[in-house]
Fold this protein.
Amino acid sequence: DVLMTQTPVSLPVSLGGQVSISCRSSQSLVHSDGNTYLHWYLQKPGQSPQLLIYRVSNRFSGVPDRFSGSGSGTDFTLKISRVEPEDLGVYYCLQSTHFPWTFGGGTKLELK
Amino acid sequence: EVQLVESGGGLVQPGRSLKLSCAASGFTFSNYYMAWVRQAPKKGLEWVATISTSGSRTYYPDSVKGRFTISRDNAKSSLYLQMNSLKSEDTATYYCARHHSAVFDYWGQGVMVTVSS
């Protein structure tokens, strides 16, 4: 199985600040069809996960442009600028290039 | 608005069975793959099962293969997960999710399953 490693595990932030979350995979996530199936989710406290970014850098419907995704191969980053209170929670990456589809362990974004 | 509402969770003894349901609305259910994803208490996310639009193809990780069965009823816009031979490590919140273009784009609120004697 592809191992997805997220760092850091915990990320203290000040409101209005900028943060980056890293997600690294144990093998390349480039699919034979040329796409890279790496996605980002946010799980707010007490809620189900919500899709933020799909296929590395595409914002899902309704996701503000404060969120951006980048990366290639095995190394990916989610950046959040001008952090707002509703951005707090646990962020997960997901790879769906290789079967079985696997999630990262999560990064908890919390206030300093 | 896409809505996914799970039901059927509860407390079950090890080795017993349980069937989860998910009622979908707000989209043409029969046009989408569907999936179940679970989250053990205070833990991360684990994909559990996916089913094709017609139900003819199903996919599972090794952790549940042979014990869990995903199915759907397109006429009722409903998704199911039959869980047999349950183990304590199956204790989790189970989420129903729409599986579109290789991503889980919409999720239900989840249903809790506790496997304990």
